[in-house]
Structure formats: C-alpha cells, structure tokens
Amino acid sequence: GQQLNQSPQSMFIQEGEDVSMNCTSSSIFNTWLWYKQDPGEGPVLLIALYKAGELTSNGRLTAQFGITRKDSFLNISASIPSDVGIYFCAGQKNAGGTSYGKLTFGQGTILTVHP
Amino acid sequence: GAGVSQTPSNKVTEKGKYVELRCDPISGHTALYWYRQSLGQGPEFLIYFQGTGAADDSGLPNDRFFAVRPEGSVSTLKIQRTERGDSAVYLCASSSLGTGTNGSYNEQFFGPGTRLTVL
C-alpha cells in the first residue's frame, strides 16, 4: 500500500544535538501528524498539523506543514536520551468536506541518542 | 484511564491455521481502526469501523482477512488459512469520532499491538 517517503531512515546523534527529519508525498494530505513509537508499544501522537504552511511547537518539538500539502518536517532541539525511538509521519485525507479516518504512514526514522 | 488494550500480546501459529486478534478500545470511542506493521515499516491501514459497521475496509489484503465489531465496542480481527507473509504486529486504534470536521483531527490512540508469527 501507499506510504509516505520519510527520511532519513536512521540517525545517530549526541545528546544535546538538534535533529531534523522530513516526509514527502506524491498526493495531498489535509492533516499531517508526527508520532513516536517505543519498542513493544503503539505509536503516540506528538504533533498534529491542519493548515498548509502551519508551524507548530510542542516543547522541544517543532513541525511544519508544507505549503503544497505534500510534505512536512519535524525538528527536535537539544536531544535527550529519552528521545530515542522511531518517529513516523502520517497523513490523513479529506474528501468532500469529510475526513477519512485512515492514516497513511511513512517508513519511520530510527533515532539513537548517545549520552 | 484505561487505554486501548489488545490480546493476545503475542501469537504463534502454524501456516494454514485460523487466528483471532482482539481489541478493546477506549470506553466511549465510536471509531476503531486496525493497522498492520511489518518489520522496519510504518503501520498500514486495514479497516476502520464507525460504530458497528465497517466504514472503510479497503486495506484488507484479501478475503482471508475479516473483522467484526458486533456491539460497537470490542473488535476481532480474524485471519483464515494464515500464511508466513501474515507475520507482523497488528495494531488497533480508537478515536472519539471517525471523521473530524475540517481543520481538526480526532486523535487515534493506539494499543500495544499483537505480534503474530506464522511458522
């Protein structure tokens, strides 16, 4: 099935460094989301973006919804060891004013933070 | 409060067998979703329920896969004649509403998943 193109696939950084990851799609999504997944757990929502061009922050996290509605990025500032995990972007589409429930996910970015 | 729960947490079966995976959504959530996550991949949508009915089953890979939600709460994903390629983590999520109004998102809360291994 369709998945969003997410990069990089993995990142190894030192504690305190900033991190950036992004996601692109060949089709338009009306809502972009960023999730984090820890081992043995389901994904947990970090940030939701609703409007093209929107820039949203949640603590050390900042995400932007691309103007074309086909891309998004997530930045993590001053990384800490508990940031370790897999980060997923996800998109949700609208049609005729009604949101579809299903989410389309990227392949994930594995983040490793060295103390 | 209690989150989404899934049972069993792990299931090992033999090729050709039938399996059932259960999802208990957050109380009061009308929408329920099933996703499948293969190793090293993001979750892939399977089916979405609004109440008791399947609003979108376009992600079910073939007719060996079937899901029910008879009372609009607990859901069961059923897989017949399992194949080795069915091995994956099956995730369930629920939300308060299946469809959001424009400019909003009804957050999907995910369970921990059931890891299915077909030998």
Overall description:
Chain A is an all-beta fold. Chain A is 0% helix and 54% strand. Chain A has no helices and 13 strands. Chain A has strands at 5-7, 10-14, 19-24, 31-37, 44-49, 55-58, 61-65, 71-76, 85-92, 94-95, 98-99, 104-105, 109-114. In chain A, the strands form three sheets. In chain A, strands 2, 4, 5, 9, 12 and 13 form a six-stranded mixed β-sheet that branches. A five-stranded antiparallel β-sheet of chain A has the order 1-3-8-7-6, with no helix packed on it. Chain A has a two-stranded antiparallel sheet with strand order 10-11. In chain A, a hairpin with a 2-residue loop joins strand 6 (55-58) and strand 7 (61-65). Chain B is mainly β and 119 residues long. Chain B is built from no helices and eleven strands. Chain B has strands at 5-7, 10-13, 19-24, 31-37, 44-50, 53-56, 65-68, 75-79, 88-95, 109-110, 114-118. In chain B, strands 2, 4, 5, 6, 9, 10 and 11 form a seven-stranded mixed β-sheet that branches. In chain B, strands 1-3-8-7 form a four-stranded antiparallel β-sheet, with no helix packed on it. In chain B, 36% of the residues are buried.
The interface involving the most residues is between:
A-B, 32 and 34 residues
Structural class of chain A: mainly beta
Measured on Cα atoms, how large is the radius of gyration of chain B? 14 Å
Question: Quick one: how many beta strands of chain A?
Answer: 13
Counting DSSP E segments of at least 2 residues, the number of strands of chain B comes to: 11
Q: Helix proportion of residues of chain B, in percent?
A: under 10%
* Share in helix of chain A: under 10%
Sketch the topology of chain B as an H/E string, one letter per element.
Answer: EEEEEEEEEEE
Helix and strand run of chain A = EEEEEEEEEEEEE
| Overall form of chain B | globular
Q: Total number of helical segments of chain A?
A: 0
Q: Give the oligomer, counting copies of the same chain as homo and different chains as hetero.
A: heterodimer
Strand content of chain A: over 45%
Largest sheet of chain A: 6 strands, mixed
Strand content of chain B: over 45%
Total DSSP helices of chain B: 0
